[in-house]
């Protein structure tokens, strides 16, 4: 079986610093899938008693959320088999495009649908193991407003078509955990002038990204930028009004 795991971008990403009662960040983000940027996944049963991943990026053969997903599926007797997974990566690592999460959830959805499993608790267990971007990928929405810690996903009134041509792939591998940790250490409230609250922090850690700040908007925790041509086409009055009312001037979730 061959599967496609699509990249996503954050058209905007508002992040609130963690408070003392939570280990996670509240967010408000418009998330959209990229139509023609995806990883390819091929699955076959293995005769071994362990899962194997082969990839054009060798680092993903040892550390990969796909292993976590397959373990959870066996735990719940959704499958008893072990698998060989071939992963052809096209989505860059550390690019703010959700590639690793997309791979894992695409595989999970394949098995859950194949065996007609509808169980929100299993979905939540997988999301907890993989990360909050998982909720968007489980939703099947092409574009969605994502709030809370990432677990609240609602379809968006305006549809977008984002293609690879709209992206600047900078080649910088950003560490998501490090970006969020440094963001929390930055003094003051979140009054970023950018559509992405993490922009200033990310550039401080990865100065090379400053070369792209005038060319577009950063996605996720970096390092991809969405070109200005996209915003010139889609960021019209309706969308600006929505952003100002529901995101920019809204200080608590």
UniProtKB/TrEMBL annotation:
Record-linked SUPFAM superfamilies: Ribosomal protein S5 domain 2-like
GO molecular function: 4-(cytidine 5'-diphospho)-2-C-methyl-D-erythritol kinase activity; ATP binding
Record keywords, A-Z: ATP-binding, Kinase, Nucleotide-binding, Transferase
InterPro entries from the UniProt entry: GHMP_kinase_N_dom (IPR006204), Ribosomal_Su5_D2-typ_SF (IPR020568), Ribsml_uS5_D2-typ_fold_subgr (IPR014721)
Pfam families recorded: GHMP_kinases_N (PF00288)
Top-level taxon of the source organism: Bacteria
Residues in GHMP kinase N-terminal domain copies: 64-122
Listed name of the protein: 4-diphosphocytidyl-2-C-methyl-D-erythritol kinase
Name of the gene: ispE
């Amino acid at each position: 079986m061959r599967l496609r795991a699509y990249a996503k971008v954050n058209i905007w990403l508002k992040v609130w610093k963690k408070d003392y009662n939570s280990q996670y960040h509240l967010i408000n983000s418009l998330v959209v899938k990229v139509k023609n940027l995806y990883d390819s996944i091929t699955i076959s049963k293995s005769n071994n008693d362990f899962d194997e991943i082969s990839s054009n990026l060798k680092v993903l053969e040892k550390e990969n959320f796909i292993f976590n997903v397959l373990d959870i599926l066996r735990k719940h007797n959704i499958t008893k088999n072990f698998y060989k997974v071939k992963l052809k990566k096209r989505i860059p690592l550390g690019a703010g495009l959700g590639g690793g999460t997309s791979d894992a959830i695409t595989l999970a959805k394949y098995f859950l649908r194949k065996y007609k499993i509808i169980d929100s608790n299993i979905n939540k267990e997988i999301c907890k193991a993989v990360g909050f971007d998982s909720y968007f990928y489980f939703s099947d929405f092409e574009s969605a407003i994502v709030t809370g810690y990432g677990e609240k996903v609602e379809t968006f009134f305006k549809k977008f078509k984002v293609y690879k041509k709209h992206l600047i792939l900078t080649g910088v591998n950003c560490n998501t955990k490090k970006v969020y940790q440094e963001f929390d250490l930055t003094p003051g409230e979140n009054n970023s002038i950018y559509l992405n609250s993490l922009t200033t922090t990310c550039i401080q850690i990865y100065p090379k990204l400053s070369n792209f700040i005038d060319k577009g908007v950063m996605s996720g925790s970096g390092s991809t930028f969405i070109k200005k041509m996209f915003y010139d086409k889609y960021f019209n009055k309706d969308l600006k009004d929505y952003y100002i009312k529901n995101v920019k001037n809204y200080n608590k979730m």
